[in-house]
Amino acid sequence: MDAIKEAGYHVLDLAHNHILDSQIEGVISTADIIEKAGITPIGVYTHEPRVQAPLVIKEVNGIKVALLAYSYGFNGIEQYISKEDYNRYLSDLNEDKMKAEIERAEKEADITIIMLQMGVEYRLEPTEEQKALYHKMIDLGADIIFGGHLYVVEPSETVEKDGDKKLIVY
């Protein structure tokens, strides 16, 4: 963690398909280690349930930046945890929850950045599902969307919304 902090990281995204590899205990201990290093984890909720947790908002040069993170799934390991734990700790692609969080971010921050873990590994083009969801997030108020999970570089695009340019990196 020292090297990560010394490299300048202030936030780490934990919303990914391997976060449950060590069950809920691993989620909690991973987030705890990150927090003890003075770094903020996003994409998991260990202090309050997801629906009650405050948004992660960092101020950068006087600009409030909301950071949200979501994962397409958890490699099937989610079937071994309770529905209560799933809803409490994890940040999935539940559209109602994402919509509420993005709308909150738009009210509380100047810029909303979303990290997404989804898509088909090693595919060089985004799926129609990715395109539709990323554009929906822009419509809801996201300013920048960074995709991940693919192990390859997919394209990026700039989208105009209400006179502002928004960035999507698939």
Automatic annotation (TrEMBL):
Residue ranges constituting the Capsule synthesis protein CapA domain according to the UniProt record: 1-170
Keywords noted in UniProt: Coiled coil
Transmembrane segments: none
Keyword Coiled coil: yes
Cited SMART domains: PGA_cap (SM00854)
Family designation: Belongs to the CapA family.
Full protein name: Enzyme of poly-gamma-glutamate biosynthesis
Taxonomic source organism: Streptococcus pneumoniae
Taxonomic placement: Bacteria, Bacillati, Bacillota, Bacilli, Lactobacillales
